[in-house]
Amino acid sequence: MNALGGKNMTTNILLCGVGGQGTLLASNILAETALKSGNDVKKSEVHGMAQRGGSVVSHVKFGREVFSPLIRKGECDILLSFERLEALRWSEFLRPTGTIIMNDQKILPMSVSAGDAKYPDDIPGMLKKSFAKVLTFDALSKAKELGNAKCVNVVLLGILARNLPMFSVDNWLEVIAERIPPKILEINKKAFHCGWEMAN
Q: Count of domains in the chain?
């Protein structure tokens, strides 16, 4: 059940990306923010060949009471994708009325680099044919502007936060402060706020 409008329901969010993009850290921050906000939370991860640029996906479910950590196909409320092709790869999990938040970044999988497959041309256009809300952001460029490309994941969390009004900004920032090393905390706080503003 979509919980974005009701506090007794469950909200299902699937985060997907490529190894090295910080997808799992982002899912941990999301799960802990949901917990801090008074929710029951379940989380499951599939690492794949993360260390070699392979697909990484994390299921996060929260609400009054959550029984299973896995999101079934067609039941995801928000798909947060760190890379274009990963959005397409995991889109079958999203409900037709759900929201795709996609980082407009292209990372060639090994099959494409080896010439065995072709990277699709218009992924946003393909997704818009099947889903009601497809939001595309150049989060990587914003992270680079801030001075650290690795904080792209926190830029994306700022964008996600705009779509989760049940969580306070203070709760997000508290968890970010708990999970991010002190020496890069300030730039990550800026990254979160940048994402928040991008999604306005």
A: 1
Burial 59-90 (b: 16+ CB within 10 A, else e): bbbbbeebeeeebeeebbbbbbbbbbbbbbbb
User: Over pLDDT 90: what percentage of the chain?
Assistant: 80
d(CA 152, CA 194): 10
Task: Determine if the pTM surpasses 0.70.
Answer: yes
For residue 95, which phi and psi values (nearest 5 degrees)?
A: -75, 150
The 3-class SS string of 126-188 reads HHHCCCCEEEEECHHHHHHHHCCHHHHHHHHHHHHHHCCCCCCHHHHHHHHHHHCCHHHHHHH
**Structural domain contains residue 174:** yes
CATH code of the domain containing 54: 3.40.920.10
Q: Read off the pLDDT of residues 43-87 as tens digits, 9 standing for 90 and up.
A: 998 765 545 568 899 999 999 999 999 999 999 999 999 999 999
Cα–Cα distance for residue pair 162/36, rounded to 1 Å: 17
| 9 three-class SS | coil
